[in-house]
Amino acid sequence: MMDSYFRGTMWMLLVLFTLPHLNCVEVCPNSCMCNFLGAVKCVGYTITDIPKQLPVNTYLLQLNGTNMNVIHQQSLAEMNLLLRFSLTHSHLHTIHPRAFQVAPQLKSVKLSSNDLSTLPAQVFSPLRTLDQLHLDGNKLETIAPDMFEGLVGLLDLDLSRNKLNNPPSDVFDGLTNLNFLNLGRNLIRKLQPTIFHSLTKLVYLFIYNNELEVLETGIFDGLVNLEELKLHQNHITSLPPQVFWSLRNLKVLTLSSNRLKAIPEKSFYNMPKIRKLTIYNNPLLSLPDQLMGHMPDIKEFYLYATNLTTVPGNLFSNMSGLLTLNFHLNDWLYELPSDLFCCLPKLYKLSLKANKLVYLHPQLFSRLTTLDILLLADNKLQSLPEEIFRGLGELVLINLSNNKLKTVPGNIFSSNTVLKSVFLSGNPWNCTCTIRGIAKWIRHNEHVVSDRDGVLCHSPAKHLHHTIGSLSDEELNHCNTTYKSYYIHNVLHEPTTTPPTTTSITTQEATQQTTIQTSTPTTKPPVLPTTGLSTSLKTFTTKPPNSPPFYDMLVIEQGPEFVHHVVHKDWVYVWTLPSDTALVGLLMVCHILLVVTGLFLIFAAMYGMYCLNKTTDGLKAECAHILG
Ligand SMILES: *[C@@H]1O[C@H](CO)[C@@H](O)[C@H](O)[C@H]1NC(C)=O
Ligand SMILES: *[C@@H]1O[C@H](CO)[C@@H](O)[C@H](O)[C@H]1NC(C)=O
Ligand SMILES: *[C@@H]1O[C@H](CO)[C@@H](O)[C@H](O)[C@H]1NC(C)=O
Ligand SMILES: *[C@@H]1O[C@H](CO)[C@@H](O)[C@H](O)[C@H]1NC(C)=O
Ligand SMILES: *[C@@H]1O[C@H](CO)[C@@H](O)[C@H](O)[C@H]1NC(C)=O
Ligand SMILES: *[C@@H]1O[C@H](CO)[C@@H](O)[C@H](O)[C@H]1NC(C)=O
């Protein structure tokens, strides 16, 4: 009796364990792959409905690339163990209104990449335990407000890549457990202010690639668990103040590629966990003095393709974790505050390339002691202060290519002891005595100047296209000027390629009249400046604030002979007379003229005397003749 009982049990176990397995192998339909755990995958255009005779233990059924355009009322019938169903890339256009009533146990339905343009009313509502619903990649334009009613267990809802434009304000009400919501790549223009208010457990909210123009005040209120909010590639023109303030767990926020011209003060406060924040590719005109809250976890920040002309000095001061700062390709950025990089103790890469920088404050980089890579290429730099790279003991690479440098101080790299690569090409190097110092450095550090064959003289004519490294000290002919006076001289006499749109500069034949605005750094220039003289003068003279005003320093060797200035309504008007070379030339000509005139007069007098003498002789002879 015991024995037969035991034997029976054995048989049962054997049947239980082997049958499904055998079934799988034997029953798996054509075009499908089945595994013994109950996962079935079917592919191909021969499939027009759910294959019959699937293994009885099928819990996962994936149909991809099929010809099944309709889910019929009975398509999913008699599959009581099926939990996860997907029908993708299949031109599905119709779902029977009661298609899911026969399979209320489903936990996952994925209908991605089909042709659905409408959904029957409440078609998913029988699925009380549904946790995943993917409808992405269809042609849905609208969604009925009650479409997701009753799906309280839903965790993951993907509606991306449709044609939605104005989802109803209560469409997500009741989805209190939702974790992931993707509305990206639709045509959404407007989102109602309360649309997300039930979604208190939401962690990921993607609204990128839409046509949103505004964000309503309070739209993200209550999303205290949100970690990723993606809003990039929309048409957002403005943000309401404090719109992100509820999002204290936010780690990723993307606002790039919108139409923001400004960002409200303190917008990024209360985001202590933020790791990724993007605001690049917006036509930003200015940023507020207080913008970034404490964000120690941020590692990378991109601020490019904006219309910023400058930024507040404390912009990065709370982003203390930054390793990489890519602040480049800003077409209007010509000036940086001296303390901008004050508080970035971990920064190792700073890219400022392809901005319009004209001037760098001597202390700008002084605190970036961990910096490895500094990219300054493709700017408008005309000169560099001697101490600009001082203290950057870990600097390995500096790129100064394609600027307007005519020379740089000879000891500019003296404290960059581990420097491996310097790029200096594409600058109009002036191969006169002014370049002697840096030329010597280049000769001694040839291996460091990575593009040394492109570091060419641009003037004077006799050295045109020679590499700096090939010129000896003797060839750099002697002219006794100090670098500083050279600098001022050149800044003042730099010809402007495009005259500024303001009337700040007028150049006349004999005299130069230069107008310099000595505004405080906070007031913005009236018109976005073009590159050139006005900018360099302004930055040179008004920054740093404690340095003496420029006109105290202006009378210098090699400089203009006479300088006059008048201060009027915050503007300083400066007149200069022609520089000494022209004056000396004029004097020389006068001198020669005088000498020639003198000689002429002397000769004329002598000739007169001679004539007089001759006449008197003649008279004398005539008298003698008459008398005689
Ligand atoms: C489904 O099919 C499409 C093309 O028909 C293919 O691109 C895609 O990778 C397939 N997906 C899966 C999960 O097999
Ligand atoms: C830095 O963050 C703190 C805390 O959020 C804030 O009080 C401070 O004003 C911020 N600084 C700047 C310059 O925004
Ligand atoms: C930003 O600059 C671009 C060119 O650099 C210009 O076309 C655009 O009009 C500017 N936008 C604003 C708002 O100034
Ligand atoms: C330096 O800048 C020039 C000009 O933009 C560029 O061609 C070159 O690749 C840059 N080199 C490095 C190492 O960044
Ligand atoms: C080059 O430097 C010399 C000496 O300072 C100066 O006289 C000359 O004008 C400069 N040339 C150019 C093109 O700047
Ligand atoms: C250059 O000028 C300085 C004073 O400006 C003078 O002390 C120095 O001796 C001069 N050097 C030469 C080589 O003439």
Automatic annotation (TrEMBL):
It comes from the Eukaryota. This is Uncharacterized protein. It comes from Larimichthys crocea.
